[in-house]
Design goal:
The complex is a heterodimer of chains A (about 325) and B (about 240). With about 325 residues, chain A is an alpha+beta fold. Chain A contains four helices and 21 strands. By secondary structure, chain B is of the alpha+beta class. Classes of the chains: A alpha+beta (about 325), B alpha+beta (about 240). Chain A: This is Biotin-dependent carboxyltransferase family protein.
């Protein structure tokens, strides 16, 4: 029988990847991990390709037990992570023995924790991706007693008694705090908001509970459209900031419908979207205006840091004879 | 032939192309021909191409490409298109039976009132002539069409529904749509078709494509079962 990862407490957890790319012409949203940076880093630390399937744990406690020795990495929002009852660090590779329970509890400051397992897990896919799509009704939402098939195992690599971390990998960790500063660039329809557009940067907005993977709703002193008229539906990017009605901003996230009919005031940057994927209801968000060039530079710096981490992980894994995915 | 375009940045990972200087049909031809040509050129780092009515969204990973490269490639393809006539895409017609009003189309009275028409007139206009599919959009491969020849645009609902059932027939502004999957929606609902619009296992995902037409045909609630679950398919040609 194949080795498995048995889920005990499922909370709100799904198997995720970076998204279902290339189908937006058919009206399918990209979806995928809402904090792409943390998901990529978790996979790299677990010796996987950045886009390998991994577990996205949202807000609630989660636990599971592998039937064989495995190597894992946990990233994303701060939480208590224990393996066999012993406290372990996030943002580094962690060895888990067969039968030991991995428990992730007390997720705080952010909303989502990523758990990657060396070799990843076997999972159904639709159009080349395992990313949940709630509109299509496709998702591997985990439940208690679910068993995920593991693809490989990994002999124990750390000291069985002292539990000293073996790795000094200089990991590009995401920063978590009680409030967020989110970078945006000007949207193509900025002019439709006249002088009120400046409100986006003047004061903070609060994340409301009606926020999800499709979009975040933020309350505050919202800009107002000063033009009128019916807009034809058109493609809108992930990150588009819209003001549909009332006193809420809508920031589209990865599950957004690809077409919409509202003017786009601003667009959250690629690095900002990973941070927004962690924003909890009740938290405060301030927007910061960036040029497109600065936003691209910031994203590239973040991705270069992941690539550099990948080569350090390979060096370390080679030295320890850990079978990382090539 | 292709018309003029303007390209604007749309964040750090997208540009939006708008067709300008022509009528709506020409604008639609331009953005769809450009989308086809751009997709065929397989530009590196690009992962999303969304042509709609008069606009084309290009999404990319700005780690692998950049706005300048994408803009240059779009200009190159647009210039090539301008030099030759657009091929006329073959158009197919889909006949779509619809139960209008009642539980199937709860907003029919509201839409009639807003347009200053009777419910019967709204149904007659909606099912009068075939409506052209302009793009596949949200949610999930929904066929987005030109609206019927109503006397004015139809306002969106003040409060969008949390969930709209599959097969719902809706209108908004100067547009019409069939919802293939359960999804939230702010468009007023006129009716519902018993046909199965989308088959998730089919390749391609949707049986219709931009340029095809939908002819809506009123049926009675009693005729629902005759069509229930039948896959949507082209009628001829």
């Amino acid at each position: 029988m194949a080795d498995t990862l048995t889920v005990h407490r499922a909370g709100l957890a799904t198997v995720q990847d970076l998204g279902r790319f290339g189908h937006s012409r058919y009206g399918l949203p990209v979806n995928g991990a809402l904090d792409q940076h943390s998901a990529r880093v978790a996979n790299v630390l677990a010796g996987n390709d950045e886009g390998a399937p991994l577990i996205e744990i949202t807000a609630l406690d989660f636990s599971c037990t592998p039937s064989t020795d495995v190597l894992i990495a946990v990233t994303g929002a701060p939480a208590e992570v224990t393996v066999g009852g012993v406290r372990r660090n996030q943002w580094e590779p962690v060895s888990v023995r067969a039968g030991e329970t991995i428990a992730i509890t007390g997720i705080r400051l952010g909303l989502r924790v990523y758990l990657a397992v060396l070799g990843s897990v076997r999972t159904p896919s639709l159009l080349g991706s395992c990313a949940p799509d709630t509109i299509l009704g496709f998702a591997q939402t985990l439940r208690g007693d679910d068993e995920l098939a593991l693809r490989t195992h990994c002999p124990p690599i750390d000291h069985p008694v002292f539990r000293i971390p073996l790795f000094r990998l200089n990991v590009p960790m995401a920063r978590f705090a009680d409030s967020w500063t989110i970078d945006v660039t000007d949207g193509p329809d900025l002019a439709e908001f006249g002088d009120t557009a400046e409100r986006l940067f003047r004061s903070a907005f609060t994340v409301t509970p009606r926020s999800n993977h499709i979009g975040l709703r933020l309350s505050g002193d919202v800009p107002r459209r000063v033009t009128s008229g019916e807009l034809l539906s058109r493609g809108v990017p992930v990150g588009a900031v819209e003001v549909p009605a009332g006193d809420e901003l809508l920031v589209l996230h990865r599950g957004r419908g690809v077409t919409a009919g509202y003017p786009v005031l601003a667009v959250v940057t690629a690095t900002g979207l990973s941070a927004l994927g962690q924003a909890r209801p009740g938290q405060s968000v301030r927007f910061r205006r960036r040029t497109v060039a600065d936003a691209v530079s910031a994203h590239r710096a973040q991705r270069h840091a992941i690539h550099a981490l990948k080569s350090r992980v390979r060096t370390a894994f080679d030295a320890l004879r850990i079978p990382a995915t090539r | 032939m292709g018309g003029d375009i303007v390209i604007a940045d749309c964040g750090d990972s997208a540009v939006v192309v708008k067709a300008v200087g022509g009528d709506t049909t020409r604008a639609w031809h331009t953005v769809h021909a450009l989308a086809d040509a751009f997709e065929a050129a397989r530009p590196g780092g690009v992962h999303g191409i969304v042509p709609t009515y008069d606009s084309l969204l290009i999404e990319f990973d700005c780690f692998h490409t950049d706005h300048t490269t994408v803009r240059r490639a779009l200009r190159h393809e647009a210039d090539r298109l301008a030099e030759r006539p657009l091929p006329a895409a073959p158009s197919r017609c889909f006949v779509v039976p619809v139960v209008y009003g009642g539980d199937h189309g709860p907003d029919l009275p509201l839409v009639a009132q807003q347009l200053g028409l009777t419910e019967h007139e709204v149904v007659a206009l909606h099912s009068a002539a075939p409506l052209t599919v302009r793009c596949l959009g949200a949610p999930a491969a929904a066929p987005m069409m030109d609206g019927p020849a109503f006397p004015g645009p139809v306002p969106r609902l003040a409060s969008p529904r949390i969930s709209v059932v599959p097969g719902s027939i809706a209108v908004a502004g100067r547009q019409a749509v069939v919802s293939p999957m359960p999804s939230p929606g702010g468009w007023p609902l006129l009716g519902r078709t018993p046909l199965r619009v989308l088959d998730l296992d089919a390749e391609p995902l949707a049986p219709y494509r931009p340029g095809d037409t939908f002819q809506f045909v009123p049926i009675t609630p009693g005729q629902w079962d005759e069509h229930a679950g039948t896959p949507l398919a082209a009628a001829h040609g």
